[in-house]
Amino acid sequence: MRGGTSKGAYFLAGDLPAEPAARDELLLRIMGSPDARQIDGLGGAHPLTSKVAVVSPSADPHADVDYLFLQVAVDRPEVSDRQNCGNIFAGIGPFAVERGLVAAGERETVVRIRMVNSGDYATATFPTPGGRVDYTGDAEISGVPGTAAPVVIEFPPGASALLPTGHVRDEIDGVQVTCVDNGMPTVLMAATALKVTGYESPEDLEEDTELAARLRAIRLKAGRLMGLGDVSETTVPKLTLLAPPRHGGAVTTRTFIPVRCHTSIGVLGAASVAAGLRIDRGVGADLARLDPGCDRVRIEHPTGFLDIESSLGTDAEGRPSARRTAVVRTARKIFDGTVFPRAAAAQPLGGPR
Ligand code: NQM
Questions:
Q1: Regarding the domain delimited by 2-157, which CATH topology (the fold level of the hierarchy) does it fall under?
Q2: Contact 290, 250 (CB under 8 A)
Q3: Residue 5 CA to ligand 1 centre (angstroms)
Q4: Bridge partners, residue 148, by sequence
Q5: Is pTM, for the whole model, over 0.85?
């Protein structure tokens, strides 16, 4: 399914091995990893198209289904459950109806989803005229050609601290950063602090080896400050370079996930950016143009913009905390069938070939 601006393989948990190592080994074979082209599997040779959702009925009284997100690395034999994915989330409700995990409403269906990676909850509302998922509609998702039916996603405040380092700003390698987690641990920085404008194309930014080295060093230190430990092998935190908006939005972004530069922006990544912009004295506060009376934040990215509703409050200790986050995405069923995984390797993956 396409979920927002990403694409992934959606599975019923019962169709995969329950044991994580066996499941991950199978998923590598299904997606065609490790291989930069993923030529022998379903993966699309980019982190945004090498994603997996595992869905099951939920035993949690607050949820209808459980959604486990797995990032399958493209050119390394790795599957990670360390991050969540709001784009792939957009397909979970429709998938749950298609697979009979949730009964469809006559006009629309609301599915309560527990995000297993974080333990947080969210709801997805989408049209089901006559009790069937209708993927057609007029919602646009910039970064994807055409239009589709809206999937309205509401994220109540999650369990993690909005400012995981405990500070509004930290300085890492001489660069002012604001580390924020409103669903996706993200390090915000002014693009100019890294000697780029923030308006470059993802390709140009990816070719800048000096920038890559600085970002890697900052990310490793930020990971420790954010309580994530050694993040050298994980996909979080993400890094977002900020610049003033150019197209009437609140801010321009270039997001590293964490090595490749996102062609747009992740949903939870955008939720973290939007919340970060509202934090007084944060690195985004000087750059962003926010409408103080309005929850909607338009985040510009390399292929358009993402509108997200975000409001903050304060917690019992007076620290900023997320109050509400909502976004409209779309999803589409592309293919439904049986996948034939590559045969298991005689040698362990990553070993001599
Ligand atoms: O932040 C890419 C994507 C994502 C994540 C990434 C996402 C999110 O666009 O919620 O959707 O940051 O790895 O699929």
A1: Diaminopimelate Epimerase; Chain A, domain 1 (3.10.310)
A2: yes
A3: 9
A4: 139
A5: yes
